[in-house]
Amino acid sequence: MRELTAEEQANLESLTDPDVIKPKFAWDDTFQRKLLGMLLTDQYMLVQSVDKIQPIYFANESHVLICKILINFFNKHKTIPDKWIITQELNDILKDKDKSVTLYHQAELNSLYDYYVPGVDSRDYLLDKITYFAKVQGIKVAFHNCVEKMNEAPESEETWSFVYEEMRKAMTVDRSYTPGLEYFLNIEEMYSRMEDQFKGKNRYTSGFDSIDRALAGGGLFNGELGSWIGLGGSGKSLALCKAAVANVLLNHKVLYLTMEMDELGISKRFTSQFAKVDINALKDCKDQVLKTIEEFGKDQEDKNLLIIKQFPGGTIDVNGIRSFYSQLEVRGWKPNLIIVDYVGEMKDDPGVQKYESAYRILRDLRGFGVEKQHCTFTCIQPNISAAKLEIHQFIDESNIGTSFDQFKPLDALWSINQQPIEKDAEVGRVYVVKHRNGKSKYSFKLGFDFNLGTLDIFEISKERYGERMNKVQAEKAEEVPHDKVPEKKKKRKNSVIEDDEET
């Protein structure tokens, strides 16, 4: 940016509010630009900071004006103003000023949007710094006000009451938290929450009746975290997609974050299950799909119930998800359910061992859900021991990969179990490993719809499971010519059968 002429500098200084204290803060322009850029683009950070930061805290006159516009707009409309609104407000304030001054302020506004990039690792660091910044600046302003008051009437009782209150307010600046459920003051709120649970307003289905029936309240709720575990290719992502379909049908807003398959691939899977159409025939069935979606949306107040977003594997952590979430909130869209496919592809915390990072990711995902009041579904990988299990055994907490501690934050853990012969039969088994609020340690049978091509995954009866398994076993037996079976093996097989019959 070019240097201002003496005349332009004089014009700029004429904008100075005489009531503004000329600050000499330790934080440089780069930090203050980054801080204000964060407030302009990240609603979560603005909510945390709006009651702490005052325009007077900034050294640059452009920053003072922009902060005033931002805070006034947010207090009135409860959202971050678009850039064009800030621009218009600046133009209105500067309409009587020299054009060069207006251009200077506009250039400074443009630069602020480049200083903070949502999703960077420094987000939590900046939240701590902005709180500390507000504390220090608040104390400086309070001290200035106190000195003025003491100069006016040093012996007055009113003066010292003023000093005490000013310093007390400055010292209590901290992150913003809700008061929680004030039990004795608002017992009705407890019953209101119970009523919401009873109506299913904040209840989220796993997509499987045998799971939902075992959970207290019939499903998972806001702030809870459920996860699938299974070997690669066993259907974890299909189960997550099924949950997305089932919860959209319950009018929940679902945010599907994928780190493996791209957005088109997930949307094709969703469409196939939602419209009951062969995934390989979606192009030919466009009219049918559009009709299904149109019929579903007829009675919907908000038709925007699903957003699918891909992030490259290893590039996003929970803070990055927070930032993306905040950007959606700015657009007026808040999810009820977040599906993360999957946590194993998220960015590890570089400061700790991988096993500790794996635990922290799940812990922080759950904490984020509690904070923002949404439910979360994901999946985790088992360790190599899961591949050695036999058909009568199930994957459980002892088979969790990377770190057993991943088990702790989970409110629900379900395993998909599928041996090669079960895969051929298009069946499998679900084992309920953990329900924090409900029955666990039981299993049920699964079927997969690969023939019709919808990639659906659903419960089947023991009888149906047996039929499919017997059919595959019979087909495999027919594939081996009788005269090719070694004599010893035939005798051993007969002896086993006889032993079983005797037993």
On the 0-100 scale, what is the average pLDDT? 82
Query: What ranges have pLDDT less than 50 throughout 5 or more consecutive residues?
Result: 12-26, 488-503
Largest sheet: 9 strands, mixed
Quickly give the structural class. Answer: alpha/beta
Output the keywords.
single chain, 503 residues, alpha/beta, 9-stranded mixed β-sheet, two-stranded antiparallel ribbon, 11 strands, 49% helix, elongated, disordered C terminus
Task: Give a structural overview.
This protein is α/β, with parallel strands linked by helices and 503 residues long. Helices cover 49% and strands 12% of the residues. It is built from 18 helices and 11 strands. The chain has helices at 6-13, 29-41, 43-49, 61-77, 83-93, 99-115, 123-152, 157-171, 187-199, 209-212, 236-248, 263-275, 286-297, 318-330, 354-372, 420-425, 462-479, 487-502; strands at residues 203-204, 220-221, 225-230, 254-258, 306-310, 337-341, 375-380, 412-417, 427-435, 442-449, 456-460. Strand 9 (427-435) and strand 10 (442-449) form a beta hairpin. The protein is elongated and about 105 Å long.
Secondary-structure blueprint:
Blueprint: H1 6-13, H2 29-41, H3 43-49, H4 61-77, H5 83-93, H6 99-115, H7 123-152, H8 157-171, H9 187-199, E1 203-204, H10 209-212, E2 220-221, E3 225-230, H11 236-248, E4 254-258, H12 263-275, H13 286-297, E5 306-310, H14 318-330, E6 337-341, H15 354-372, E7 375-380, E8 412-417, H16 420-425, E9 427-435, E10 442-449, E11 456-460, H17 462-479, H18 487-502
Parallel strand pairs: 3-7, 3-8, 4-5, 4-6, 6-7
Antiparallel strand pairs: 1-2, 8-9, 9-10, 10-11
Helix pairs in contact: 2-3, 2-6, 5-6, 7-8, 11-12
